[in-house]
Amino acid sequence: NNALKMLPECSFSMKDSYSVFELCDLIHCKTAKPLAVYAKDFYEGCPALTENKYGDGFAYYIAAKTEYGFQKDFYENIVKKYNIKKNMDSKLPYGVTATRRTGDSSYLFIQNFNRHPVDVLLPNSMVNVETSKTVFGKINLNPYESVILKDDLDR
Predict the structure, then answer these.
(1) What is the pTM of this model?
(2) How big is the chain by its Cα radius of gyration, in Å?
(3) Tens-digit pLDDT profile for residues 27-56
(4) Does residue 38 contact residue 44 with C-beta atoms inside 8 Å?
(5) Which residues contact 20 (CB under 8 A, 6 or more apart)?
(6) Contacting residues for 55 by C-beta, under 8 A, at least 6 apart
(7) What letter would DSSP give residue 4?
């Protein structure tokens, strides 16, 4: 076990350190800027999180298997910094994803990766592509079930 220690150069709002375990990759920065380093042992001072300018954007590399708290804080910062919009304006249960595909129409793919059923609250009425029925409010997804919903609302 080791720790990932955030550097002052990191502009994200995060804790000072996070636990890392099982995998600690050794990397060397050439063009990337280190945002965090390993805190102890053989790895101490080596980059553990980097940011690299890529085209018109940035690429981030997480060099270790991190605790959930790091992932939550890091990705919340990324979403905020780059103004990334949610695919669905509802809070999803743990283990559920929502992916949107757009073209002539907008389709929402909701997937339950849990071993148990979950209820998902829809932000508006949509059409279930498989059944052609309009669904709204709360829908129930069985374990490992997916549903494709058509949503014609402008996003």
Answers:
(1) 0.73
(2) 20
(3) 999 999 999 999 998 899 999 999 999 999
(4) yes
(5) 1, 2, 3, 4, 38, 48, 64, 65, 66, 67, 70
(6) none
(7) E
